[in-house]
C-alpha cells in the first residue's frame, strides 16, 4: 500500500478504525514532531493533515509535501 494521507482513512466509511488506531495515529504524529524538534530543523513549518501519511505498516509518517 502506498502512503495515504491519514485523513483519507479517517473519512473512509469502508475502513473501520477503532479508538486504538486513532490514538496510535496521534501518537505517531506527536513522536514525529518531537523527532523533528530535536534535529537541526527544529520545526516542521507546515504541519497539516495531508502531510501525515499512513504507510503499509499503518504507521503515520510526517512528510513535507
- By secondary-structure content and strand pairing, the structural class works out as alpha+beta
Q: How far do the termini sit from each other?
A: 18 Å
Binned strand content: 5-15%
Which residue ranges are poorly predicted, with pLDDT under 50 across at least 5 consecutive positions? none
Shape: elongated
Order of helices and strands: EHHEE
Q: Could you give the order of strands across the largest sheet?
A: 1-2-3
Main sheet properties: 3 strands, antiparallel
Mean pLDDT rating: 83
Number of helices, where a helix is a run of at least 4 consecutive DSSP H or I residues: 2
Number of strands: 3
Structural domains: how many: 1
From the alpha carbons, calculate the radius of gyration and give it in angstroms. Answer: 12 Å
List keywords for this structure.
65 residues, alpha+beta, three-stranded antiparallel sheet, 2 helices, elongated
Descriptive account of the structure:
The longest helix is centred in the middle third of the chain and has 19 residues, at 19-37. The protein is an alpha+beta fold. It has helices spanning 6-10, 19-37; strands at 4-5, 52-54, 60-62. It has one domain (4-62). It has a 3-stranded antiparallel β-sheet with strand order 1-2-3. The two termini are 18 Å apart.
Write the layout of secondary structure elements.
Elements (H helix, E strand, L loop, with lengths): L3 E2 H5 L8 H19 L14 E3 L5 E3 L3
Antiparallel strand pairs: 1-2, 2-3
What's the quick description here?
The protein has 65 residues and is α+β, with helices and mostly antiparallel strands.
Amino acid at each position: 500500500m502506498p502512503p495515504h494521507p491519514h485523513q483519507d482513512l479517517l473519512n473512509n466509511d469502508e475502513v473501520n478504525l477503532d479508538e486504538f488506531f486513532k490514538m496510535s495515529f496521534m501518537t505517531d504524529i506527536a513522536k514525529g514532531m518531537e523527532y523533528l524538534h530535536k534535529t537541526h530543523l527544529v520545526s516542521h513549518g507546515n504541519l497539516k493533515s495531508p502531510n501525515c501519511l499512513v504507510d503499509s505498516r499503518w504507521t503515520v509518517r510526517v512528510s513535507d509535501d
